[in-house]
Amino acid sequence: MILVTAANGNQGKLLIPRLLAAGVALRACVRSDESARTLRAAGVTDIVVGDLSDPDVLVRAMDGVEKVHYVGPALHPRERDMGFAAIDAARAAGVRHFVFSSALHAIITDLVQHGIKRDLEEHLLSSGLEFTILQPANYMLRHRLVPAFEKGVFLLSWALDRRQSMVDVGDVAEVVAGVLLDSERHAGATYELVAPGRYTAHDLAKVVAEVTGRDVVAEQIDSEVFLRAALGTDSPAEFPYQARLLRAITSRYSSHDFIGNPNVLTWLLGRRPTTFEEFTRTEFAAFTG
Fold first, then answer.
1. What's the angle, vertex CA 22, arms to CA 20 and CA 24, rounded to 5?
2. Stated pTM of the model
3. Which residue, among 258, 233, 225, 232, has the nearest Cα to 114 in the 3D structure?
């Protein structure tokens, strides 16, 4: 039995079909009945609905499970405690392989969410569980392309001349499936998951322009405007943890590059990883089709 947390999230939506196609026993954990309905429609029959901060939910989710793919709750103020509890619950349940979705360069602790993932990596390493740690770069995301497709503006909330590496979520899901289905081969490994390319915002806008055949410019969003939009409120003080996390991202990415190397991902996939241009072409075809 394989447990997938955040099973209707960015990774889960692409991972679940791969595991179903492989015919493995599968349990999904989601927070809402709506997500559960989506997964049932996709063919998942064993679903735990609830918040992983609830110890009873964790016990039910881990019961009888051999392998876990754990994705922590983004922007949750208790992400660290929930991750510790998930690792401890997996150990208590006799889980044989814990696959943890961390982040590229988790050692950068002035990024709030990276500091959390660094601590969770350490806890997992000390747990006695067999493990694989995956460290994906920033995802290539559809919603960042929509303003460029619609208005010819590529928006970022940090300095436009800083370089970043990215990764296609579909490539990440392919790696996760391979790790879960062939645990012995990947036991004890820590893998950086990075696609080719180191892009400034201007570079990204140029790629989108080439794909769409229209002028596209890069534009930096005021960090506080972005913060209010991301939190869905005019009062970020209502969400102090989330506001601190998002401000830290803007600060770090405005003062430092965030780059990696594609060699490991290339080896894991057995092919060249998806490039930003390829991702953009796929998303533009879907947008216009």
1. 70
2. 0.94
3. 258
